[in-house]
Amino acid sequence: MSRRFLSALFSLCLAWQMAATLAFAAAPPREPMLRIETGMHTAMVKAISIDAAGHWMATASEDKTVRVWDLAAKVEGSSDPAPVRILRPHIGPGNEGKLFAVAISPDGGTIACGGWTGWDWQKKGSVYFYSRATGKVVKRLDGFPNVIKALRYSPDGRRIAVALGAGKGVYQLRVSDWKLAGADRAYGNDCYGLEFDAAGRLATASWDGFVRLYDDRMQLLAKEKAPNGELPYSIAFTADGGKLAVGCDDSRKVAVLSGSDLTPLYTAPGGADSGSLFSVAWSADGTTLYAAGSHRSGDKYLLRRWEEGGKGEFSDLPIADGNVMQLASLPGGALAYAAAGPEIGVTEPGKAPSFHRAPGIVDHRGGNLLVSADGSSIGFGYGPGAKPGAVFALGDRSLRLGGDDDGLYGALLETPELRVTGWRNGTTPLLNGLPLRMEPHEASRSLALGHDRKLFLLGTDWNLRCFDRLGKERWHRAAPAIVWQVNVSANGKVAVAALGDGTIRWYRMSDGKELLAFFPHADKKRWVLWTPSGYYDASVGGEELAGWHLNSDTAQGADFFPVSRFRLVFCRPDVINRLLAKWDDAEAGKGTGEETLLSLLPPVVSITSPQDKGVVEQGEVTVDFTVRSPSGEAVTGVKVLVNGRPVSFKWQGTGLPLNQGERRKVTFALPAGESEVAVIAENRHAASEPATISVSRTAQEPEPEVISLKPRLFILSIGIGGYPDPELALDFAAKDAKDFASLMQLQKGGLYGDVSVKLLTDAAANRQAVLDGLKWLSGEARERDTAIVFLSGHGVTDAGGAYYFLPVDGKPGKLGESAVVFSEIRKALMSLPGKAVLFVDTCHAGDVMGGKKGGSEVNAVVNDLSSAENGVVVFASSTGRQYSIEDPAWGNGAFTKALVEGISGKADYTGKGRITVASLDLWLSERVQELTGGKQTPTTAKPRTVPDFPLAVKKQAP
User: Which residue positions does the secretion signal occupy (predicted)?
Assistant: First the structure.
């Protein structure tokens, strides 16, 4: 029987198996799952792939995402490659959706990914293929008999190799028709290493100890034991295919084999001093050999570099804080890497990384989690082994850096009655010498005893476990990440755990039910707090740190919606407050309505043309887009934004209504230069996430009168300190408004052609005057102009959560009829065709609500205004319920003093004479904390659709 016939028969059987699997498979989970989103991976980055031109880089992580990076573009204000897309396959609880492999086609057009994908709900492995340009699933191949361990495209892009776990072998498929081109199932363990040479031959490395070489028809040419270890992990051909480097998971040596028959040629000199060198790569010209892995010096993991094709002297370069999982060469000699940290980066030959992206999560390893007696306050550190340097109080949502940790205590680890041993990073913990029940290979990481000496907790790689004093398990809860730290409140009601995904979670001690999750971002500013039911509270900017993943049908992949899309219904600080009273999620949620996340889903917009980074020559551009409505709700409106601000547009053909998946076209004016274009669709519940592209218009010769035309600046500056009630009086609010207005008037003739100011202070700042000022602003500002509202005074939140600015004639007991609701301010700022900026300093201490201190909560207001659909840049004097501080020594409030300093030139970090939104944010953040000793933390929120822009120019001394 011929090989060709056997191959065809096997291909037919595999195709039938895959088709049968699809026909009888269960569907992926449909319930929404909350996920952390920081703009970077939040778990180990297992794989990295780069296209042939070195333009696009794809990274795959156990956080269940693929991230696409544009190596030719830079993040605004930095030299880092720009993140352009996040790909989300179907996921589920536990391992389902973890990604171990990624491959980008040589032309950069298609990205394949796989891992523990489809295994839990289909019992077969699957590979997802995405369009890099659109992010849409173009193909899903399933039916593989185990999880996906590695993927690799052939150099011509016509074939893709798929390596599997558990000895299930390696498959090659033709991309043209997705049919089997060949397979070898005679493997004895996982296969992690795949590499094609320029001629299309495939080499593999497997934990069965063998390196294999196949021809372009997947016929075995050679099979040899790795000479440097029992667990071959990665392999790399030189560009000419003459040599093959092998790295092993259990070896400090790197072997170089013949690329033609796998004959051992030599071992690179000098093994690793510690760990192993399991990741290997060659430079593009084949003269330099690289290796990395668990080899480290101190806390830094090292990249080893050999000259002379791996025969010369070596040097080590620190590049990461965790195991280096994969290396990839770039044209021109640079090297990209993926690390367990999670981290990714690019390094030039012999130089420190030119690009290094660390996670935005807090590393809780080796820390000390402190808890108050009632469990409502915690202390934690922002780095591995860090002492508690931050205190978060659930009651007032205050995050204090360097705060007083009095009243907080660490975990109780031992008593005479309860002695747990072998728990620190061990798989066989003992209670008073007797073993505790664990799953095979489950490692214990943390311990806390109850203060009543009756119960204790073990945090492990996979679970939080509660045992009684006899060692009987009371309950266990699957954890979404390693439980690095655990503690128990002194009153015995709640357990608090710090996890490997950066979250800190509260569990009810009686039954282990999860009650709350808190995610503090590593920037030490932003945070989000949520219940299992989805109700949340967040700092300024914190709403974008979490979102809901929703699996759609198998052909479409998945959707992701930031929690901000559900703000109107699920941003409920009051629900969290009620939960704290009884530690009961169900009780706290009573009376909140019957709305579900699935019924409130916003539309999803995709731009089909022009392509991102496109160029147009005309003054108008036509954008082609489609809209889906996952909830089935009608699409009621469409907005087009240019550089974050709404523009008028014309429908080309049919406009609204929009049916499911229909294509529409809109035409609108585009300014010269590069612009960020966004399309947003709305239904009756929410606005979509913006679909964005960058489009450049080639500059045309302007009319003579336009050449010298500068934008205008309009300022509504309001400051109220002279309230009739002396309890509300503020010393410097009116002066703050005057000083800001006077300073900005000096910008006339500089950045702005003209500056118009409406100043309202004290007695002049009554409710009607404030409303009239907002109308004036809306009526005057035009598309090229900038409008600024400056507010200093008292802000008040009513019982229903509505936020008000208190004018001089405002009555805290009659807010609806006497104060200015923030929706009026939002409406005025949203309507502006040009840039809109709000400076808000309304969190002053005072008896605003009849004895209730801290009656204002500005976070939700700022998050609302700065969302993409509203498009307002907001500078807030403080965060949450912090007070804004005044001091006679400054002659202003701390916020305005720092603001005046920054605009006067202190925020000109580049020395170019321009104070931008980003530079002013940095100055305010550092200066206000310096002035107030860390008691006041200003925050800035800029819609991501709004590029950084200058607010002022530094005035030169006469």
Answer: 1-25
